[in-house]
Amino acid sequence: MTNLTSPQNVAPRRPLVAALLSTALPGLGQIYNGELNKGLWLFLGFALGGAVGGVFATLYAPSALMAPLFALVTLLALGIWLGSIVDAWRVARLGEPTPRRDWQVSGFYALLFLLGNAALYFGLVSGVNAHLVRSFTTPGASMTPSLLGGDYFLVDMRYNCPLCKEHVARGDVGVFVYPDDRTFYYVKRVIGLPGDHIALRGRELLVNGERVSSAAVGDGDRIVVAEQSGERKWRVEWMKDKSAPDVEWVIPPASVFVLGDNRDETKDSRSFGFVPLADLVGKARQIWFSKGPAGVRWERIGKTID
To answer: Is the domain of 53 the same as that of 166?
Structure first.
């Protein structure tokens, strides 16, 4: 049996090693220093605090508080991580040499690193992204003016499923699997539901014979049209120099009809057809970051997506 009190088993902890281990995984440096309980609590605080706080900020907090709460949760998680690094370095530097336990070997630290990161990624990040909230970005201008190229927005994944409280409705800005390449996600506005009759009379949109479009206002080389479905209102854009043909569709069962808000510069159901209802995975909720050619667009951060 190993004698834990023999001189060869008593050695000071190395501050650099402790700090690097906590850099790789919050709390791992504390475990290296022999503070198993502290290390586990730091890891749990970083993982669960960040995940639970982030979900609350993005899904349950009022829209006006989302951005500051999300930033606060992020700073809190970073604070726990940095605090773990500093504490591990300090304890290793100032602590007295202690007996090395049988489990304090490099292989054990490597195993904890792999298990901890697997828990973070597969248990928390993947679970949250699949079932609660996920971040997407818009690379182009197909949803202008609602979403601009360079907008990063949060999508509510508690949507369009048997136990979900919120179901698909006309006017939703939905994220779905692109029918022509299922490795991509698209974001468009849901215009029609199964069985609906959709008609475009030039720039005027009708759903089941009722006008969705209302006032049109010129804006440079574009025409901005207000649209409304029930209580939901949004704006769309058309190019002045482009004609809009008269077309009609009847939506088949288990499908939806989607359009981009930038009606002349988008690929939507007019080109790739109806979207299977099962492929609609989430509803765009709020912009959490935005950057354009001139830099960060601060005025868009926290904006609710209508």
So the answer is: no
Residues 150 and 282 in one domain: yes
Per-residue confidence in pLDDT tens, the chain, 306 aa: 334 334 455 567 889 999 999 999 999 999 999 888 999 999 999 888 888 888 887 778 777 787 788 888 889 999 999 999 999 999 999 876 667 777 778 888 888 888 888 887 777 777 777 778 899 999 899 999 999 999 999 999 888 887 777 789 999 999 999 999 999 999 999 999 999 999 999 889 999 999 998 877 887 888 999 999 988 899 999 998 887 788 999 999 999 999 999 999 999 999 999 999 999 999 999 998 999 999 999 999 888 898
Give the start-end residues of each E strand in the chain.
Answer: 10-11, 98-99, 133-137, 151-156, 173-177, 185-192, 197-201, 204-207, 210-211, 213-219, 222-229, 232-239, 247-250, 255-259, 275-276, 280-292, 295-296
Catalytic residues: 142, 188
| pTM of the full structure | 0.77
29 shares its domain with 80: yes
Whether 102 is in a domain gets the answer: yes
43-47, long-range: CB within 8 Å, 24+ apart, which pairs?
Answer: 43/116, 45/80, 46/77, 46/80, 46/81, 46/84, 47/119, 47/120, 47/124
Domain span including residue 86: 7-131
Total number of domains in the chain: 2
